[in-house]
Amino acid sequence: MQQDRFDDDTRTDATRRANMERDVTPRLVHLDDMSDLQVADGDPDIRGWDVRTADGEKIGKVKDLIVDTGLMKVRYIEASIDKEVLNASDDRHVLIPIGSARLDDDEDDVYLSSSIVDPRTLPPYERSALSREYEVSLRDRFPRTAGSGTNPASTSSQTLADSRSNDDDFYRDELYDDQRFFGQRRRGRESSNYIGPSNDDVMRRRNEGV
Fold first, then answer.
1. pLDDT tens-digit profile of 122-165?
2. How far apart are the C-alpha atoms of 111 and 147, rounded to whole Å?
3. How many of the other CB atoms lie within 10 Å of CB of 49?
4. 148 CB contacts (<8 Å, ≥6 apart)?
5. What residues in the chain have per-residue pLDDT under 50?
6. pTM of this prediction?
7. For position 192, which CATH number holds?
8. Mind spelling out the 3-state secondary structure of 146-196?
């Protein structure tokens, strides 16, 4: 019922058709844009936290989270990379697959998991709907763990046609494994959703008897 209400309230049929024509992934949304969603009470809200390389160098901050509304999972971290790091005139927004980073066990910091990834080479992200082509291109820049058992259907050799046909297969990849990301910071809460209805939305539905 929650997903049906969410779809009805946030995306019209016309928007869905337009998304299909533009090859976007309509179930991915910015958490900041969704007044009826929030990070679950008791879980760390990483927005505003420092982003660091695997070696500990501070390179920017977490600006937002890209949420898959089909499964209520975070798929990407939207990070703002400091202009000093880029040697540029402005900061650059980039996306980081959730499973390619990790939380520090004690401090409020987000670390890239691999020293191979250079944030300066990640494609700029314009705050708009995501195309599957962009997602595939981005994902190919992040290494996988050898022998990790990554689903062959979600490797870089996967065709765009295949990836469009089944979102669940596309995200069945270690780069989208949020348990790798949270580590000790959600110990004991692994089976519960990190993203859920906002407290205001829960109260509204109670008042309406939904």
1. 899 988 778 889 999 999 899 887 555 444 444 444 555 555 55
2. 23
3. 18
4. 174
5. 1-23, 149-157, 202
6. 0.78
7. 3.90.50.10
8. CCCCCCHHHCCCCCHHHHHHCHHHHCCCHHHCHHHHHHHHHCCCCCCCCEE
Side chain identity at 22, as an amino acid letter? Answer: R
Range of the domain at 51: 2-208
- Which tokens is 68 given? 């898959």
Polymer length of the chain: 210
Q: pLDDT at position 153, please?
A: 40
Q: What is the pLDDT of residue 208?
A: 59
Listed residue (91, 102, 83, 85) closest to 125, CA to CA: 91
Distance CA 53, CA 119 (A): 8
Q: Which two tokens stand for residue 188?
A: 């004991």
